[in-house]
Amino acid sequence: MFHIRKAEQKDLDTLVEFNRCIALETENRKLDLPRLRKSMQAILDDERKGVYLLACDGEKVVGQIMYVFEWSTWRNANFMWITDLYVLPQDRQRGVFKALRKAVMDFYHSRPDVIGLRFYVDKANTSVVPLYKKIGWKESNYNLWEIKKHD
């Protein structure tokens, strides 16, 4: 039903808008749009920073997910992190997330150098937790700690 493809330069405005919406919807956070645009451009210019997969209904982009790799020195392999999951509100409950998840899982299983898949969820975004549990994902035994220079 949905076609999944990698984001391209032509998708810059969509990536900016979807990420603006994610921040507002999940954390009630208003992002600095010029900084966000530069960030999305950096990702489009360098896949080592991340890769966006887009779910398309015809030509219309209806959802996104991003993956990036983290090297594990203890395991001599990569963990794959997913982030920036977003589906347009009017397209939710239509299988967009399922299509994006399948594409990510197919890629994950095709890579022998990737030994795990991880993601994080804002503590306030509790509405998604039942879905993640339902599809078999489990909470990690790691807590996330950070130091920030700025938001």
3D architecture notes:
- This protein has four helices and five strands.
- It has 151 residues and is an alpha+beta fold.
- α3 (96-110) links the parallel β4 and β5.
- It has a single domain (3-134), classed as 3-Layer(aba) Sandwich (Aminopeptidase), CATH 3.40.630.
- A five-stranded mixed sheet has the order 1-2-3-4-5.
Shape by Cα distribution: globular
The biggest sheet, with number of strands, parallel, antiparallel or mixed sense and barrel status, is:
5 strands, mixed
N-to-C order of helices and strands: EHHEEEHEH
- Measured by DSSP, the beta-strand proportion falls in 25-35%
Radius of gyration: 15 Å
The CA-CA distance between the termini, in Å, is 38 Å
CATH architecture call: 3-Layer(aba) Sandwich
Q: Report the top-level CATH class.
A: Alpha Beta
Summed up, the helix count is 4
Total DSSP E strands: 5
Instruction: Write out the CATH superfamily name.
Output: Gcn5-related N-acetyltransferase (GNAT)
Mean pLDDT: 92
Strand order of the largest sheet: 1-2-3-4-5
**In which range does the helix fraction lie?**
25-40%
Number of domains: 1
Overall structural class, as computed from helix and strand content, comes to: alpha+beta
CATH topology: Aminopeptidase
